[in-house]
Amino acid sequence: MIDQGAVQIEENHIRHKMIISWCLYTQGTRADVPEGKKWLHWRNAEGFLWSQNLVDALNPKFLRLISPGAERTSTGDRYDGVLTTRYDGSVKVGSLGSRQAGIYYGPSDGRSAGGRIKWRLWLGPDNLPRRFQAEIATGPYGPEREVNIVRMNVLYKGWGAPVHITAPSKNLVAETE
């Protein structure tokens, strides 16, 4: 599937995260990780609802959002040994924010700033994503009228190869409430 083994994520002080079945394990530098432990175990299955509106090339809902404005570009780029076709586009959304699972989008909710997602998606001849880039810019918000920009670059490789993910050793895990 996706070669993310130990996913490097610096957002919100989380360095690694794993999702196994309905469990989420996070490893970070936050003060809430007890001494002697390296991972937090989250059993709250409702938290996975947060992943429904993620900016992610593996999210079918996100792909439906961006597909209408996609422009096809032949680049001759190869990823994971596969010739790809690149699609480019930009879409405006009513709200943007970050959650533990990643960057999310949605309709205007009156609390979050909206913005624009400028993206590039490389697909192989099998229509599987090989690379995804996004520049996510929030509209001006707050008294200083700030604009935040987050850039993503994700490579997908090893499609069809078996994936074995093992939960961290119990002596390194602290349970969350």
Description:
There is one protein chain. The protein has one helix at residues 60-66; strands at 14-20, 23-28, 39-42, 71-73, 78-79, 82-83, 85-93, 95-99, 102-106, 115-123, 129-138, 149-155, 173-175. It is mostly beta strands and 177 residues long. It has a 5-stranded antiparallel sheet with strand order 4-7-10-11-12, with no helix packed on it. A 4-stranded mixed sheet has the order 1-2-3-13, with no helix packed on it. The chain has a two-stranded antiparallel sheet with strand order 5-6. A hairpin with a 5-residue loop joins β10 (115-123) and β11. The chain is flat.
> How many strand segments?
13
Q: Mind describing the biggest β-sheet?
A: 5 strands, antiparallel
Radius of gyration: 18 Å
Order of helices and strands: EEEHEEEEEEEEEE
User: In percent, how much strand structure appears in the residues?
Assistant: 35-45%
Subunit organisation of the chains: single chain
- Strands across the major sheet, in which order? 4-7-10-11-12
Low-confidence stretches: 1-14
Q: Could you give the distance between the termini? A: 31 Å
* Share of helical residues: under 10%
Mean pLDDT across all residues, rounded? 79
Q: Helices and strands: which structural class?
A: mainly beta
The gross shape turns out to be: flat
Q: Number of helical segments?
A: 1
